[in-house]
Amino acid sequence: MREVTHEPDDMWATTSVVDTEAIDHERIIASIEVCNDQVEVRIAQRIDFDLLTDPITVKASRPRATLGQMYEMNSAQAREIGEALLEAAKRLQELEAIAPDWLQRAS
């Protein structure tokens, strides 16, 4: 598989030739350690080429955000998850602020 690395300010960080009829664009937004594992947040898009048609047709899949290796979502879903995580973080900070000293030492 051939991979091209783009300039830092480009929309995509890498473009990979998946097979002779498709390419994948990707940019990792963040890699966060969760439960001793790295969870990547990235955006990606696949472009398929039908080489048997004349003229050759190009089919671009919708860009998607991914959370780890399991979840693919559109922009609205990614925003909703982001807002939910921010709300959870806010509530955790409030709980941590009032947690007794012995509870904070246990974590």
Description:
With 107 residues, the protein is of the alpha+beta class. The protein has 2 helices and 7 strands. It has helices at 75-98, 101-106; strands at residues 2-5, 14-19, 22-34, 37-50, 57-60, 64-67, 71-73. Strands 1, 2, 3, 4, 5, 6 and 7 form a 7-stranded antiparallel β-sheet that branches. The chain starts with a strand and ends with a helix.
Oligomer: single chain
What is the C-alpha radius of gyration, as a whole number of Å?
Answer: 20 Å
SS-based class: alpha+beta
Task: Please provide the ordered H/E string of secondary-structure elements.
Answer: EEEEEEEHH
Structure summary, number of beta strands: 7
* DSSP summary: helix tally: 2
Percent range of helical residues: 25-40%
State which percent range the strand residues make up.
35-45%
Identify low-pLDDT runs. none
Distance between the termini: 44 Å
For the residues shown, what is the average pLDDT? Answer: 89
Query: How is the biggest beta sheet arranged?
Result: 7 strands, antiparallel
The outline comes out as elongated
Keywords:
seven-stranded antiparallel β-sheet; 7 strands; 107 residues
Write the layout of secondary structure elements.
Blueprint: E1 2-5, E2 14-19, E3 22-34, E4 37-50, E5 57-60, E6 64-67, E7 71-73, H1 75-98, H2 101-106
Antiparallel strand pairs: 1-2, 2-3, 3-4, 4-5, 4-6, 6-7
Short description:
The chain is 28% helix and 45% strand. It contains two helices and seven strands.
